[in-house]
Amino acid sequence: MKVLKHLFDNNKNWAAKIKAADPDFFAKLSRQQRPEYLWIGCADSRVPANEIVNMLPGEIFVHRNIANVVVHTDLNCLSVIQYAVEVLKVRHIIVCGHYDCGGITAALENSEHGLIDNWLRHIKDVYRFHKQEIETLPTEKERLDRLCELNVMEQVANVCHTTIVQNAWQSGQPLTVHGWIYRVSDGILKDLNVCTSGIDELPQFQRIV
């Protein structure tokens, strides 16, 4: 084994540490997956879902992409949501962004980044929706921070507008969608106070079932 041997060594040490704390952990983990939470987060390597909320493998179902975007044409994300809601029966969907997000920063730059510019267009739309509010902020950092927050809020709305989530609510399945943001510089989560637990909390024109 000549390539990335240190990662295999790290894996063995990690598995041994887990088994020392709970000898049956991996046996139990292999038999079932029953998380109560779906985490939709950013692909940024500094934002690991399990570690942020101090949970072990098996306790949280995770989907990550650049800038934690939920797009109605993204079959990858929608498939994850469907599996989490309809099969795993999660009770909470958490959209978690983070400050100092490279995707958010790139979306505001007037330069070409390649293929990713097509993905960043969704964030530019969020900026366009909230341009008046964002541009009243005095510093670039404040504008970027606010766009990070507003992006989470928009993605929470996008999750709530899916047929998957609305069908779950219509059938009486308990499910709540949350919007959080994480600060890499201190490791602390912030609740953005966007939380939806039922179809009756949506505007009438956004209800599709």
Task: Give the SSE layout.
Blueprint: H1 5-21, H2 25-31, E1 37-42, H3 49-52, E2 61-65, H4 75-87, E3 92-98, H5 102-107, H6 116-129, H7 131-135, H8 140-160, H9 163-170, E4 176-183, E5 188-196
Parallel strand pairs: 1-2, 1-3, 3-4
Antiparallel strand pairs: 4-5
Q: Could you spell the SSE succession in H and E letters? A: HHEHEHEHHHHHEE
Radius of gyration: 19 Å
Low-confidence runs of at least 5 consecutive residues: none
Strand order of the largest sheet: 2-1-3-4-5
Structural class: alpha/beta
- 3D shape: globular
Counting DSSP H or I runs of 4 or more residues, the number of helices is: 9
Mean pLDDT: 94
Amount of helix: 40-55%
Largest sheet: 5 strands, mixed
Task: For the record, give the distance between the C-alpha atoms at the N and C termini, rounded to a whole number.
Answer: 54 Å
Brief write-up:
This protein is an alpha/beta fold. Helix content is 45%, strand content 17%. Helix 3 links the parallel strand 1 (37-42) and strand 2.
Please explain how this structure is put together.
- With 209 residues, this protein is α/β, with parallel strands linked by helices.
- Helix content is 45%, strand content 17%.
- It is built from nine helices and five strands, in the order ααβαβαβαααααββ.
- The protein has helices at 5-21, 25-31, 49-52, 75-87, 102-107, 116-129, 131-135, 140-160, 163-170; strands spanning 37-42, 61-65, 92-98, 176-183, 188-196.
- Strands 2-1-3-4-5 form a five-stranded mixed β-sheet, covered by helices on one side.
- Strand 1 (37-42), helix 3 and strand 2 form a beta-alpha-beta unit.
- The radius of gyration is 19 Å and the shape is globular.
